[in-house]
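Data availability excerpt. The first of two example chains:
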Amino acid sequence: KLEITDAMKSYAKEKLERLSKYVKDSDVNANLLFKINGIKQKLEVTIPLKNFTLRVEEVGDDFYAVVDTAVDKLERQIRKNKTRLENKQVKSKVDFDFMSFDEKDEENANKIVRRKQVELKPMDEEEAILQMELINHDFFGFKNVEEDCVSIVYKRKDGHYGIINLK
């Protein structure tokens, strides 16, 4: 198990704080999960904001390079969706949570290893696609205001999107 040093925490915090110019919320927590699998290192960064969540994963050999690339990806996500995000956010203080573990500890691949309970937020399909892209997932559940039901938007193998409406 790799210990996250104060220098590593400070470096990640400093790099992530450059994103604060895009965020309006007064209190934002950036969750960083650092995993080691042999010589490969994986960093997952999740930044839950009021109306959406930013998420990125990066894998590499060096912690500092992985942090740099992850922050660059987050900034590209924000800039790519700048006009939509500007309507909802822009300036903040960011707090950070750090976790690390060795992936060799995970033994059973078919075991459910994580459960999440999420609040379904009302939005249209376009907003749901944006949210899905921002958190870098292949699917996203939401309260569909256009269809008045719970829906799941997903990314198809052909690059387009699909919608499942739960009635």
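And the second chain:
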Amino acid sequence: MQEKIKKGLCCLIAALLLFGGSIGVKPAYAATAPQIASEGAALYNATTGQFLYEKNANQQFYPASITKFMTALLVLENSSQDDVVVFSDSATGNLESGAVNLELTKGDRVKVRDCLYGLMLKSANEVANGLAEHVSGSVSAFAQKMNRRAGQLGCTNTNFVNPNGLNNANHVTTPHDMALIAKACFDRADFRALDQTTSYHFPATKKRPNGTDITMGHRMIAPGGSDYYPGILGGKTGYTSAAGNTLVTCAERNGVRLIAVVMKSKRTQYADTRALLDYGFQLAGESGGKKQEAVGGETAQETSGRVQALTANSQAQSQQENPAENQQAVSRQTVSPAGSQANPASRQEANPSANQNQALSGPGAKLPSQAGWLQRNGVWAYREANGELVKNARREINGAQYWFDADGNMKEGWQQDSTGAWYYLAPGQGALQQNCWLQYRNQWYYLGSDGKMLTDSRTPDGYRVNREGVWIG
């Protein structure tokens, strides 16, 4: 019996020695290439210069607003941030309908530094045009400069025709090339400082004499957000009807810097990006594994119902996600405020954190002089510098709009003005919701740049709302 066991062990050892090299047993901890739903993707190790994952990485796609990486790079390389950009009629007027903007007009004068924040946080398209004209004299000359710089960076399938990424059949690049462009940007400390900023006060202009508070549109950058990614260095979102969702993201951990690019996505850009970065950092922890072939897959499922309200800084993770980046962000509400006789101010079931990016400028924020927020019996009020409470009025405070009743109490929830238009003020915070998607009872409504709910029309990103403001397709 013992002799048989010895012979059996010898046979087993021989088999392992003979076939072990070809069996390809994978350790349980080995990184598995992610399934990416976006049509194009690339994961680049900017520390080693190695591409770790590629899916149609050399196929040309429309980039939309991730174009602005190259715009920002050339501006930083060719101008001083203290320079002043004088906006022309061509820069501010040559935009397609619905294009995101800061309402700059001919003659507005804005420092390059401020323009860069408007470019990367707000994704303002007229700002991109103005910067291009400031650097090169014209948009066309700047586009030539963009293409020359792309070639210097090793890009082989890129052709830019504008500085903003608005729709143009000849404006194309690839995930591979975008990774190289992004690397050049994140190599610069000034760019990293710019792109890690989550909010910024854009200075006064003719149409906006009080300036504008703008927030970063990339959901993985803001600490404390549900999509925050530890180690994030920055990124940029993009969307047009032709490009779909595009996203570039850079993160660094333990000295390893990764750049993830996804293009032609259908609302899976964040799930795909997270999967790519997780995979890359797992590889880095396994002695720097080799590049993997792309693996297609079903659309990644994002947590259902985790986000109920969307802003420029936090767009919803649902199948109805508003992807508009090069087009004005819009907002939908699920209950039809226009079609109900109930008091809309009592409807505050929507997520009270609907506009979290307003929190720092909302109730409780310390302000100079005698002005400031105060709470009375659990209700917020605002005292002006002269000591008087704001009553029966609307006020812009630190860039956010607030409404107050005749007793000086801050209004919340649904509000209707004298024209019958509906607005929504964030519960607990009071900030007027603008340019945001807002979900309520599993339906979506649209709140425009002035906060007014859109009715019986098409939203800037192409969705339709009925006369009660409900999204219908």
